[in-house]
Amino acid sequence: MAAAIDAVLGRLDRDFDQALARLLGFLAIPSVSTDKAYAAECRRAAEWSAAQLRDIGFTARIDETPGQPMVVGRRAVAGARRHVLFYGHYDVQPPDPLALWTNPPFAPRVAEGPRGPQLQGRGTSDDKGQLMTFLEAARAWRAVAGELPVTVTVLLEGEEETGSPSLAPYLAAHREELGQAELALVCDTTQWNAETPAITTSLRGLLLEEVTVTTASRDLHSGMYGGPALNPIHVLAALVAGLHDAEGRVTVPGFYDGVAAVPEAVKAQWRGLGFDEKAFLGEAGLAAVSGEKGRDVLELLWARPTCDVNGIKGGYLGEGSKTIVPAQASAKVSFRLVPGQDPLKLRDAFRAFVTEKLPAGARVDFVSHGASPGLQLPLESPYIAAASKALSAEWGRQAILMGCGASIPIVGSFKRDLGMDALMVGFALDDDRIHSPNEKYELRAFQKGARSWARILGALAEA
Predict the structure, then answer these.
(1) In this structure, what are the phi and psi dihedrals at residue 401, rounded to the nearest 5 degrees?
(2) pTM greater than the 0.85 cutoff
(3) Taking residues 54-64, what's their average pLDDT?
(4) How do 116-120 and 109-113 pair as beta strands?
(5) What value does the mean pLDDT take over residues 74-94?
């Protein structure tokens, strides 16, 4: 196997310019899933992806959904000891605000960055560049060895950036087919830093709630009603302000039920990583640590639940003034959850908390935008051990086993609906500006990402 892997790595290096050209073509497709005006471009990205899979030697098809299509590919290998399911997404975030881009978002280019050449454009890091690291590794294995070392099913969706509304019913309808794999591979994650690979072993869950407070039948003249009229913005502001106490803890009753303390030995390991809190915060323009007092940034990100108000609106927001007491005000609230918390129980607790604090004359309506639990993968997994060894061989550094403060709902879906764990390996960096103007993906990450997946596929075949 070692000789085969060396040959595959050599092929990847020789064909790097061709791989880069393929990725640039993919990035030029404006596959923005949230805007119906881009529906045809999302389909074009799906068709492009299916064509790439066929070119590598996969059978591939496009399956319709109520939203964007799914792309499914399969390469069955006779006698293979492993069957893996690789997941990625071809849709991207909207590029707005366009004025902040230094280069048009869908005219991708290679430019010099602080650490060397980097790809610039929407989708470079999230998730087209990451996705293509795996496909290029598969292409090189087929070209050199004539076959992949494991059977591979590929699932690419086009709605990840809009919450994957079609994914759950699709997995349910195709459980028998997709569930044949024993392990999911997910690339939509980061590495520890530009020099150190990582495997993500825990994820925070997510609870999304929209709250609307209504106090009148219409907007009211503030000269005629100001004073006796209950102002919903004032009500909502008080509710929002009461979500945290002076120590930064969330005040919703029962919020911390099931939250386990981080063992001191684990905290010591995290402190040994050399994480620079000031640099991490400073890169985002932040001056001080917020959240629960007395906790390190990594603990807050990886092991503690949070509550954040993502947006708030009410009344007149146009130019100039308009003297009204508004009838309604609303806020969107997100909770990042850790393993042990029940998202549905917390949803009910949050709604009861808000309702009980409403003053007389106000009513509240809630809209749910999703709920998923936190996830902890088994650290003793032989797949993690195999991938860690492969990554360390490629990067010359021990791979870090790290948590992730974000949520990847598909990982929970794979466990819940298909009964399989996920191996989460990605090569994005914290400063890749995903979801922001001037998104980038370092050329070294693309090249070594493909080489890493080539090694991991070989290691999984022998695990």
Answers:
(1) -95, 110
(2) no
(3) 98
(4) antiparallel
(5) 97
